[in-house]
TrEMBL record:
Membrane topology listed for this record: Peripheral membrane protein
Keyword entries, A-Z: Electron transport, Membrane, Mitochondrion, Mitochondrion inner membrane, Respiratory chain, Transport
Taxonomic lineage of the native organism: Eukaryota, Metazoa, Chordata, Craniata, Vertebrata
Protein name per the record: NADH dehydrogenase [ubiquinone] 1 beta subcomplex subunit 10
Role played: Accessory subunit that is involved in the functional assembly of the mitochondrial respiratory chain complex I. Complex I has an NADH dehydrogenase activity with ubiquinone as an immediate electron acceptor and mediates the transfer of electrons from NADH to the respiratory chain.
Length: 174
C-alpha cells in the first residue's frame, strides 16, 4: 500500500458545516407573517380558551344522549288519565326505536361476519345467525303487523291476544 493517499479520489468531509450568513437587510416575509399571526390571532384565542377552561367545572358528567325516566305502561294508566296515555305512547315509541336499532346492529354484525369469513360463513357465523333469528322473532312478535301507524294501545291488544292464544294452546295440550 502506498504511503501517500490520493486526496482527490477520497475526499474527507468537512469538519464543520458552514453557517450561511445573511447578506441582505430585508427581513424574511414568512417570519413576519408567522410573528403577526402569533400575536394577532393565536395569542388572544389561546388566552380566551384558557379562561373558559378555568371557569368550567372539572368533574362534569358528559351525556351524549338524552336519558328519559321510565313511565308507567299503558296498562298501568288510570282511566281518563290522558297525560299518562301520552307519556306511555312516547315511551312505547322510544322503545320501538331502540328495538329497531338493536335489530339493525345485529344484522350489521352478521353482515360483517359473513364478509370476514367468506365461504366459511355458515359454520363460523352460526352464533350471529341464531342471534339475528331470535332478535327478529322477538321484534316481529311485539311490533309485527302494527304497520307504520301502530301505537301503544294496538301493541298492548296484540300482546293480549297472543297471550290468550298461548293460554288456549296450553289448555288444549292438557
Amino acid at each position: 500500500m502506498p504511503e501517500d493517499h490520493d486526496w482527490e479520489a477520497y475526499k474527507v468531509p468537512p469538519t464543520r458545516t458552514p453557517v450561511s450568513e445573511r447578506t441582505t437587510s430585508v427581513p424574511n416575509p414568512v417570519d413576519l407573517f408567522q410573528t403577526a399571526f402569533s400575536y394577532v390571532i393565536d395569542a388572544p384565542v389561546t388566552f380566551v380558551r384558557g379562561l373558559i377552561e378555568r371557569l368550567q367545572p372539572k368533574d362534569k358528567a358528559h351525556y351524549y344522549h338524552q336519558k328519559f325516566r321510565r313511565v308507567p305502561d299503558l296498562s298501568e294508566c288510570l282511566e281518563g288519565d290522558y297525560l299518562c296515555y301520552y307519556e306511555a305512547e312516547a315511551q312505547w315509541r322510544r322503545d320501538r326505536m331502540v328495538d329497531q336499532q338493536i335489530v339493525e346492529i345485529v344484522r350489521e354484525r352478521l353482515a360483517a361476519c359473513k364478509q370476514r369469513e367468506g365461504p366459511n360463513q355458515f359454520q363460523n357465523c352460526a352464533k350471529e345467525m341464531e342471534l339475528l333469528a331470535q332478535v327478529t322473532k322477538a321484534y316481529q312478535d311485539r311490533y309485527g303487523d302494527l304497520g307504520f301507524h301502530g301505537n301503544a294501545r294496538d301493541c298492548l291488544m296484540k300482546q293480549k291476544h297472543r297471550m290468550m292464544e298461548e293460554r288456549k294452546a296450553a289448555q288444549g295440550k292438557e
